[in-house]
Write a sequence for this structure.
């Protein structure tokens, strides 16, 4: 099974750029890397998804090196409201063309301070 | 609000009882997922449907758990003979399938189960 490893926690200050790295050594060829954000007592919320190189949207950037064994979520100029748990998701292929078991990492708890 | 709804939001039951949860996905989404999450842990995959077909079930899932998605619309998750270890948040998510390997999922608010 493709497993992921992330730092357990990170601290930052408002206005700083935050980079969270996820390791996924056994990622499958067709798998995408997806990041989610979760606030307490809520379901995870999709942030960004990518396959290789760099992806950017209105809230974050995702950097994926050529070997795809890791990925880095970059949050520009964080605010207090970015305090949350961030999960890296990599799919593991199952049989019959299904998506297989989807495995969330343990997550990184980001604390943004004023 | 992501458009995915779950009912009930909270459920307290006694050990040994059966419980059933419902998930209503975003209407045009053909894929539906169930997860379980305990405090301080990431969501744990339970099962996945594409339309009405249950395509994947976690090897960790006990036989006491069963899920259905009749007609490819809403889904139910049933836990039989609940145990205290089943206490968790049960999350449902849906997505619009665009081929294998794409996982942009929209999560519901979850059902919190407490087994006493």
């Amino acid at each position: 099974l493709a497993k992921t490893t992330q730092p357990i926690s990170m601290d930052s200050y408002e206005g700083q750029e935050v980079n969270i790295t996820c390791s996924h050594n056994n990622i499958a060829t067709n798998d995408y890397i997806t990041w989610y954000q979760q606030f307490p007592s809520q379901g995870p919320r999709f942030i960004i998804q990518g396959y290789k190189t760099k992806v950017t949207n209105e809230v974050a950037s995702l950097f994926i090196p050529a070997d795809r064994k890791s990925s880095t979520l970059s949050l520009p100029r964080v605010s207090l409201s970015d305090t949350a748990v961030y999960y890296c998701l990599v799919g593991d292929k199952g049989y019959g063309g299904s998506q297989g078991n989807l495995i969330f990492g343990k997550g990184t708890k980001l604390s943004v301070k004023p | 609000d992501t458009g995915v709804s779950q009912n009930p939001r909270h459920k307290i039951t006694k050990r040994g009882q059966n419980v059933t949860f419902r998930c209503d996905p975003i209407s045009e989404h053909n894929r539906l997922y169930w997860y379980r999450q305990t405090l301080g842990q990431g969501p744990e995959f339970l099962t996945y449907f594409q339309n009405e077909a249950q395509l994947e079930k976690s090897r960790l899932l006990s036989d006491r758990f069963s899920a259905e998605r009749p007609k490819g619309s809403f889904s139910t998750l049933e836990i039989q003979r609940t145990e205290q270890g089943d206490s968790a948040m049960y999350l449902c998510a849906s997505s619009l399938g665009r081929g294998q390997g794409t996982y942009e999922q929209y999560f519901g608010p979850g059902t919190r189960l407490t087994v006493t």
Notes: The beta strands of chain A are 9-13, 18-23, 33-38, 45-50, 53-56, 61-64, 70-75, 84-91, 102-104, 108-113. The radius of gyration of chain A is 14 Å.
